[in-house]
Design a protein that fits this description.
Blueprint lengths: L26 H36 L5 H14 L5 H7 L4 H15 L2 H13 L2
Length: 129
């Protein structure tokens, strides 16, 4: 029967003594450093995600819920003030002109006046509520 030689690595120049290569003494240290770095990286990504989830929950709890009629009335006042004409410019180019500022101020005035409840009643009547 033929003997199959085992793969061994020589540790010294003498071909008569062949032993497997031992693991590097620095290998456990490198492994620990790699694991520590991976955990630090994972926790760095986990913390912002957790903070965002908490922020969303807090925001959802703070925002009042509006009825369909209130949302439509709000949009009608936004359009009545003329602010919708400047929305594309503001969003696309970051422009806030004097005309846009004036339209926004008019919208805020309408929103805080009797015009808003009147518009809500109008929308509720249109919806059959």
């Amino acid at each position: 029967m033929e003997t199959i030689p085992m793969p061994y690595f020589t540790l010294n120049s003498s071909p008569s003594i062949k032993t497997p290569l031992p693991a590097s003494p620095a290998a456990p240290v490198r492994l620990r450093a790699t694991v520590a770095a991976a955990l630090a990286l994972a926790s760095a990504f986990a913390m912002p995600a957790q903070a965002q989830a908490q922020e969303r929950t807090a925001t959802q709890q703070q925002q009042p819920t509006l009825s369909r009629a209130e949302v439509i009335a709000d949009l009608a006042l936004w359009r009545r003030a003329g602010a919708d004409r400047y929305e594309g410019l503001s969003r696309s180019y970051g422009l806030e002109t004097q005309a846009y500022d004036a339209a926004q101020q008019e919208y805020l005035r309408l929103r805080q006046s009797e015009a808003f409840p009147a518009e809500v009643r109008k929308q509720q009547a249109a919806d059959g509520q």
